[in-house]
């Protein structure tokens, strides 16, 4: 993504607006520090990161989940074959 300083962006505004409208977003910086990102109005929104519940309804957890492998774990700690 191209970065332009404010002065360059002002002098090339028409071309840069056309560029953004065609899907080529760009960044405007002030003193080398990025300030804004220019994108087309019809640009798709970046997808949100979903964390909790993102697999709701896709997996099942067994009722004995908290006891799964219990015998093997006890055997490992108490010794024996």
Describe this structure as you would to a colleague:
This protein is of the alpha+beta class and 81 residues long. The chain has a domain of 37 residues: YefM-like fold. A hairpin with a 2-residue loop joins strand 2 and strand 3. The longest helix is centred in the N-terminal third of the chain and has 9 residues. The radius of gyration is 28 Å and the shape is elongated. The N and C termini lie far apart (62 Å). The model has no long low-confidence stretch (mean pLDDT 87).
Brief overview:
This protein has 81 residues and is of the alpha+beta class. It has a domain at 2-38: YefM-like domain (YefM-like fold, 3-Layer(aba) Sandwich).
Q: Name the quaternary structure.
A: single chain
CATH class designation of the domain at 2-38 = Alpha Beta
- In the CATH classification, which architecture of the domain at 2-38 applies? 3-Layer(aba) Sandwich
- Coarse morphology: elongated
Query: Which ranges are low-confidence, i.e. pLDDT below 50, for 5 or more consecutive residues?
Result: none
As a whole number of angstroms, the C-alpha radius of gyration is: 28 Å
Question: Tell me about the biggest sheet?
Answer: 3 strands, mixed
- Along the chain, the helix and strand elements come as EHHEEH
Number of strands: 3
Strand content: 15-25%
CATH superfamily name of the domain at 2-38? YefM-like domain
> Would you give the CATH topology of the domain at 2-38?
YefM-like fold
How many helix segments? 3
Distance between the termini: 62 Å
Structural class: alpha+beta
Mean pLDDT: 87
Strand order of the largest sheet: 1-2-3
Q: What fraction, in percent, of the residue positions are helical?
A: 25-40%
């Amino acid at each position: 993504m191209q970065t332009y300083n404010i002065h360059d962006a002002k002098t090339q505004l028409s071309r840069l607006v056309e560029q953004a409208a065609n899907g080529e977003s760009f960044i405007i910086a002030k003193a080398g520090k990025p300030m804004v990102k220019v994108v087309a109005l019809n640009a798709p929104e970046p997808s949100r990161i979903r964390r909790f519940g993102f697999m709701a309804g896709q997996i099942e957890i067994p009722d004995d989940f908290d006891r799964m492998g219990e015998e093997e774990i006890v055997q490992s700690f108490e010794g024996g074959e």
